[in-house]
Amino acid sequence: MDILADLNPAQKQAAETINGPVLILAGPGSGKTRVITHRIAYLIRVCGVSPHHIIAVTFTNKAAREMESRLARLTGTSLRDLTLGTFHSVCARILRRDGAVMGISPRFVIYDDSDQIGLIKQALKDIGLDAKQYAPRAISSAIGAAKSQSVGPADYLGRSRSYFEEVVGRVYERYEQLLGESSALDFDDLLMKTVRLFREHPAILGRYQARFQHLLVDEFQDTNLVQYELVRQLGARHRNICVVGDPDQSIYSWRSADLRNILNFEKDFPEAKVVLLEQNYRSTKNILETAANLIAANQQRKDKGLWTDNEAGELVKLVEAYTEQEEAQFVVREIEQLVENDTANLGECAVLYRTNAQSRILEEVFVRYGTPYKLVAGTRFYERREVKDIIAYLRLIQNPQDSVSLLRVINLPGRGIGQQTLAKLFDLSQLYSLSQFEVLLRISKLQESDDPPFYPHIARALVGFAELMQELIAASQEMGVVELLDLVVERTAYRDFLLSQPDGEDRWENVLELRTVAQQYHDLIPPEGLAAFLEGVTLVADVDSLDETASGVTLITLHQAKGLEFPVVFIVGMEEGILPHIKSFDDPAQMEEERRLCYVGITRAKRLVYLVRTFRRSLMGSSNVNQPSRFLADIPRHLISGGEKPRSKESAAAVYSWNRSAPPDATPSGNGDPAPDVKAGSRVRHAAFGDGVVVSCQAVDDDAEVVVAFRGAGVKKLLLSFARLERVE
DNA sequence: CGAAAGGCTCTTTTT
DNA sequence: GAGCCTTTCG
Q1: A250 beta carbon < 7 A from strand B?
Q2: Phi then psi for A433, rounded to 5 degrees?
Q3: What percent of chain A has pLDDT over 70?
Q4: What is d(CA A367, CA A372) in angstroms, rounded to the nearest whole number?
Q5: SS3 of A611, please?
Q6: Contacts (Cβ under 8 Å, ≥6 apart) of A576
Q7: Which residues pair with residue A708 across a beta bridge?
Q8: pLDDT at position A630
Q9: DSSP class of residue A500?
Q10: Is the minimum distance from the CB of A557 to strand B below 7 Å?
Q11: Residues of A with catalytic annotation?
Q12: A705-710: long-range contacts (C-beta < 8 A, 24 or more apart)?
């Protein structure tokens, strides 16, 4: 069988050019994943390359899993030896194996974002600065940016140019110390330390170079400088490096992704073959043209010749809702209609939004209507308190030096160990240069001295905790992760503690869900299972858990939607301040990234795109009137439908053309005096809600907001120009 | 020491 | 609206 038989010429070239560097520039829907999988299959099946010699790096674990299952089908051989994963997980594996020469404990734990923030606060405190004055988030992202360029604290301080950078440098210094004392690495460390390991230990690098004869990197436009450096290191010997990306889909510059990587690739590898994938197999002509017009408004880009053989399809639908409630209602009702008409089923529809906060109202309305949905990252599972608590216990078992975890669980459930005691414990650990846990192990001895540091009952609590942990550590050597988890919730009394809380039942469910995750690591030999489990739960992306086979509408951020496709896509919140986000207003480069984000959203769709905007939206408590997104103006009129009569009678008030030049029944006055013929007490009739009485009337811009108590439908707030109220006498 | 209540600041996007 | 921090009281 010819593995490459069903690829088009460009795809085929991309897949079979296996010697030397290759840069694949792949537009959306151009069969990029197909090319990568076929290329690997070709290497294995046709060229006889062992999977052992291949490494493929993806952006998410989900992408890696998908690639693996496609490959399994394509090759029919075992892929156990294939190295496949995210940069972070690949690096974690390398460091666990070979990090010791850099003083990295093989038992290191990985600190996630919130651990990192906590540690930065600690560092600020340690150097006598106020966490309120220096936003830990800002410092964390500055440190992250430094690490993404392999800049350590000393270098950073050396080149600091402002007072803020000076502060960051000093925090960075202390932060690194704290990480070291805890035997912990943050996300960026995984990459940076691996690069440094390779730089400082050529023999180790040599081993990996010898092994990885073929490298593939997906989503190359979203790699940062350190990741690129890693690619160059690993590929230096064989130079069989294949990178795949699309500059127009670069949406992670805030995470230090650097488009220069794509631009420099051809410089660093002058012999590189460049392959363009320009045929789109995903979307209708109208959708593709809409996207092309939108992205063409960006100045900093090279134009591509994207085209498709697909049919023209329907026009992109523009919809205006009055409030975010109605926006959500419109989406749900429209989806129900699509399902009823057999246009699509639930699983084929996705709702995309700019910020996670927007998902809440959508979720509420989906629940209210009883429409099944899949929310990618609600309150993200691994960030839930009870889940983090259990993970902290497990991390502490794996690595008792981990002070962030120790701090989290030492008094959970309450053991009478409070602030004072902890402060003393930390002082002692500083004084004796021991980890807090090591101090705990020596409490009894300390208490025998002339000046015992703790009251006897406190000392007893501390010793009790230390003994409990030792018991769990011993147990971890011989039992699987699931049993260990069970033992933890049992022996620490965490289960009882949780169930005694008001919402304990639900939260206990989450612990059980974590336990289900642990079952996947069950057949690993005891200590390795724990390490693998902890790594697995730390390096997950939310989108990893998205189950595409389950039915239900997908609710997802635009960022997470990258790499996915759906027959029907709703993009909600098409408003100035949301998309583009307000934070991008004063920076043209960021504004272009917002446009790319919108481009990514539209190009997810196969058949139908709805762009939905809301007139009045509540944000952080207060309510604002939002202007339509400037991106809507980038789309030519002939590709847009909107302003025609609403599809369903019910959503008459919610659905509206975004460019309502002449609202049909509006009689706004704009001088604070609402429409003359409707005032509080007026009897009115609404197409969907029926008869009611106006409760209040308030001028908003050049329109009026009326609150109406309907006989059947309850109290609604409506915009006079949209609601098409009729007076009833 | 710890629970409860009140006040404060924010939120972009995530491996 | 929500989480985080501080304050207050038992």
Answers
A1: no
A2: 50, 45
A3: 90
A4: 8
A5: strand
A6: A582, A626, A627, A628, A629, A630
A7: A694, A716
A8: 94
A9: T
A10: yes
A11: 32-33, 218-219, 249, 604
A12: A705/A616, A706/A674, A706/A678, A708/A684, A710/A686
Cβ contact A584 with chain B strand, < 7 A: yes
Tell me the two tokens of residue A159: 């080149």
Q: Which nucleotide is nearest to A85 (CA to C1')?
A: B15
Q: Are strands A622-625 and A605-619 parallel, antiparallel or unpaired?
A: antiparallel
pLDDT band at A127 (very low <50, low <70, confident <90, very high): confident
Smallest CA–C1' separation from A130, nucleotide:
C5
Which nucleotides of strand B lie within 7 A of protein CB?
A: 1-3, 10-15
Give the whole-angstrom CA distance, residue A602 versus residue A640.
13
3-state secondary structure of A351: strand
Average pLDDT over residues A590-613: 96
Write the pLDDT tens digit of every residue in A223-261: 999 999 999 999 999 999 999 999 999 999 988 899 889
* A445 burial level (CB within 10 Å; 0-12, 13-18, 19+): exposed
Q: What's the pLDDT score for residue A665? A: 35
Instruction: Read off the tokens for A27.
Output: 């537009």
Q: Distance from residue A116 (CA) to nucleotide B10 (C1'), in Å?
A: 19
In angstroms, what CA-CA distances link A702 with A72, A669, A718? 62, 6, 14
> Which residues bind near strand C, taking a CB cut-off of 7 Å?
A 114, 121, 379, 620-621
Q: Where are the alpha helices (DSSP H) in A300-357?
A: 324-340
Q: Strand A690-700 relative to strand A683-686: parallel, antiparallel, unpaired?
A: antiparallel
Identify the weakest region by mean pLDDT among A113-122, A242-251, A397-406, A713-722: A713-722
Tokens representing A63 are 């992408």
- The residue whose CA lies nearest the C1' of nucleotide B13 is A559
| Range 133-152, chain A: CB under 7 Å to any strand B atom | 135, 137
User: What's the whole-model pTM score?
Assistant: 0.84
So what's the pLDDT on residue A660?
A: 31
d(CA A616, CA A720): 13
Neighbours of A634 (CB within 10 A): 17
Separation of CA A514 and C1' C7 in angstroms? Answer: 36
Q: Which region, left, alpha or beta, applies to residue A370 given φ > 0 means left and ψ of -120 to 50 means alpha?
A: left
Residue A662 confidence class, pLDDT cut points 50, 70, 90: very low
Beta bridge mates, A318: A611
| Beta-carbon-side half-sphere exposure of residue A37 (alpha carbons within 13 Å) | 21
Considering all nucleic acid strands, name the nucleotide whose C1' atom is nearest to the C-alpha of residue A253: B13
Q: Which residue is nearest to nucleotide C2 (CA to C1')?
A: A620
Q: What is the nearest nucleotide to A540, using C1' and CA?
A: B15
